[in-house]
Amino acid sequence: MWPFPKKKSDASTTSGTLFFSNTLSGKKEAFIPIKPGFATMYSCGPTVYSRAHIGNMRAYVFADLVARTLRSSGYHLRHVINITDVGHLTGDSKGDPSIGEDKMEKSAHEQGLRASDIANRYTDLFIEDIKLLNLDTAHILFPRATEYINEQIKMVQELEKKGYTYRTHDGIYYDTSKFADYGKLGGLSDAELKAGDAASLEERINVAAHHRIAENKEKRNPADFALWKFSPPGARRQQEWSSPWGLGFPGWHIECSAMIRALLGTEIDIHTGGIDHIAIHHNNEIAQSEGVFEHPFVRYWMHVAFLNIGGEKVSKSLKNDFYVSDVTERGMHPLALRYFFLQAHYRSPLSFSWDAIAASNEALHRLWKLSAAIHLSAKGVSVSTPAENKMLMLLQDDVGTPQALAYLWEVLRDDEFTAKEKLGVLKVAEPILGLSLMNPPEQARQLTLKELPEDLQSVAAAREKARLSRDFEKADTLREKLATRGYRVEDSPEGPIFTMLPNSAGK
Ligand code: AMP
Ligand code: ZN
Fold first, then answer.
1. Per-residue confidence at 35, pLDDT binned at 50, 70, 90?
2. How many A from CA of 38 to the centre of ligand 1?
3. Strands, DSSP E only, in 192-321?
4. All domains of the chain, ordered by start, with CATH?
5. The whole model's pTM is what?
6. Which among 493, 381, 506, 492 has a CA at the least distance from the CA of 444?
7. What is the pLDDT of residue 206?
8. Ligand 1, CB cutoff 6 Å, lining residues
9. Beta bridge partners of 463
10. Residue 507 has pLDDT above 60, yes or no
């Protein structure tokens, strides 16, 4: 099993109580880990057949916020984000990932590449993107499903031995009627499962579709799903393995169950994902793991609401997807996207627009400037203050990032707080918010006249001269000239201060 990363402080010294909303109980609960001082967390990762979009990014920034809150509260944490590089079928957009084509094989075919090349390309892009959003990738393990085929086969065999499986023409299926608690996540009742009527609850969005699509007529129950699929007769797949049931490949759900067991154990503290995974994928993970282990396997199920555009979920199939690169190509900092996510609570749907990202970009740059000024004026070491405790409590309360951001602005702007106190609050907030507030990027730095490009130094000097002689029209024209080149000028008692405009790299 993967060992816990080393932590400087003693394992037993955790501070404060964390509260998380648990989809399993439908309530906000105090976090009580399996082992005091330690936490294990698994987040369903991307299917690497194409680039992960900004909707997916919301799910990973959320997982990162949970991880950072745990670490800041003193926990040793093992965090796994898996890489799905086989077995995720196209039918899942209609509610059934047991049917359709393998997304990896389809993408490989379309692009004339090997599935492994596709997997490498999109895994690398995924890691690059989440790094730009300040995910601490050095402390996350990214296992690939194809590296755990034996573990998956073993788990299917165990389920087979316990009588949970049956064979059809195209694979080995899980008989959901054999698992008494099937559908317990999100509280799917027997009646709802039978009727397929789940429209009343947002989390159950896919269930109705799921029950209508029972394409494999040999399925015993509509909710049954493939654990192992046979390679189609007469066709060679790029990715296939021999198994006790013949040549084939694993179902998507078994991958997570097997990797969790191999890397984190048979019971873990936290499992995260988007709300679209509750109804099917996560109920199926529970059916598999608890079917084998015969005890609960996840203590806290945490789910993030959708990032939407115009009322529709951001998704590849709806063709309304944007990427981290779209943010940077518009001249904005990638952390503007992170700031935008943090403004909403993770359980609330969030509506994307370019105006909102531009506003986040502006706000983040202002925050960087405020933080940089505090670093300059705060002398000495900060002492623990009520404001710092309040900041930590806001974040420990179910990852309360909107409240924490609002409080951060309040403290930084309010002169009732000393520079030292402000710095203390920044030091508590930043390790969780992850907005680079302790080391703002170059754009946030105040520049002297001499640091401007040479030809702009005379423009800036001429503007100052015009301003002092009250020729405001000329001063404004010259200010505009600086702005078109990406520099903002502000007047202070000490003279003009220059900064780069948020959307500019300076020219
Ligand atoms: P997928 O590759 O579709 O399995 O998605 C990877 C992760 O992103 C899962 O946790 C999904 O629930 C999540 N996800 C997908 N689309 C969105 C969205 N529009 N908003 C928030 N999370 C999403
Ligand atoms: Zn999963």
1. very high
2. 27
3. 225-230, 248-250, 268-274, 298-304, 307-309, 312-313
4. 11-304 (3.40.50.620), 324-443 (1.20.120), 446-500 (no CATH)
5. 0.86
6. 506
7. 46
8. 44, 46-47, 55-56, 58-59, 273-274, 276-277, 304, 306-307, 313-315
9. none
10. no
